[in-house]
Amino acid sequence: MDIGFDFGANAPTGVFALHAAAAAFFLYIGVENAAAGESLGLALNALIGAMLVAAGVVVARITARRA
């Protein structure tokens, strides 16, 4: 699957990794909310995490074109 940039030791991969790490944090918070019985917290944090991953792909593609 071509997502518009190559993984490796380059700036686009670093940008994507930063967004993916932030997304993982929000997914962790969502799991904590689910464990506490708050399904709305899970849904909202999962949505934030998914949007961060999508934004990471877009920004990495832009960075790959400009680098």
Structure explained in plain terms:
This protein is mainly α. 79% of the residues lie in helices and 0% in strands. It is built from 2 helices and no strands. Helix 1 (11-35) runs antiparallel to helix 2 (39-66). The two termini are 22 Å apart. 18% of the residues are buried.
Q: Brief overview, please?
A:
This protein has 67 residues and is an all-alpha fold. It has two helices and no strands. Keywords: Membrane, Transmembrane, Transmembrane helix.
Order of helices and strands: HH
Q: Helices and strands: which structural class?
A: mainly alpha
Distance between the termini: 22 Å
Number of strands: 0
Determine the fraction of residues in helical runs and give it as a percent range.
over 70%
Number of helices: 2
What global shape is seen? elongated
Residue runs with pLDDT of under 50 for 5 or more positions: none
In percent terms, what proportion of residues is strand?
A: under 5%
**Rg of Cα set:** 14 Å
Main sheet overview: none
Average pLDDT, rounded to a whole number, is: 91
Keywords: Membrane, Transmembrane, Transmembrane helix
Transmembrane segments: 7-30, 42-64
